[in-house]
Amino acid sequence: MSILIGDKVTDKISGLTGTTTARVEYITKCVQYLVTPKWKQGETFSEGHWIDEIRLKTVPKKKIAVKRKRLRHAPGHRGAGPHAPKRAGGRVGTSE
């Protein structure tokens, strides 16, 4: 499986949903993740639970729509790319 630390997961058996905060692999090749449920204000702190990797299902990430705005250069702006206008004079610090 491709579970990463910080992924939101759900236990297929118990239904526990939380964030993976640690991973351990035993000598027997058993892989477990520490799943820590989200803490809600006003509730007592709930500890994480070690759950076998095979029992976990990754919760799909929500897509976020981002509006992109095309920026225009200010009047008189001279870019720095290969097609930028050349500056008058020589190199800085030389007497060309």
Shape: elongated
Instruction: Quickly give the structural class.
Output: mainly beta
Low-confidence stretches are none
Order of helices and strands: EEEEE
Biggest sheet, open or closed, and with what strands and sense? 5 strands, antiparallel
Number of strands: 5
Number of helices: 0
Mean pLDDT: 82
Strand neighbour order, sheet with most strands = 4-3-2-1-5
**Gap from first CA to last CA:** 63 Å
- Computed over alpha carbons, the radius of gyration is 27 Å
Helix content: under 10%
- β-strand amount: 25-35%
Biased composition (Basic residues): 65-76
Region (Disordered): 65-96
Notes on the protein architecture:
The chain has a domain at 8-58. The termini are far apart. A hairpin with a 5-residue loop joins strand 2 and strand 3 (31-36). It is mainly beta and 96 residues long. The chain is 0% helix and 27% strand. The model has no long low-confidence stretch (mean pLDDT 82). Residues 65-76 have a biased composition (Basic residues).
Q: Briefly, what is this?
A:
The protein is an all-beta fold. Helices cover 0% and strands 27% of the residues.
Task: Label this structure with key terms.
single chain, mainly beta, 5-stranded antiparallel β-sheet, 96 residues
What is the topological layout?
Blueprint: E1 8-11, E2 17-25, E3 31-36, E4 49-52, E5 56-58
Region (Disordered): 65-96
Biased composition (Basic residues): 65-76
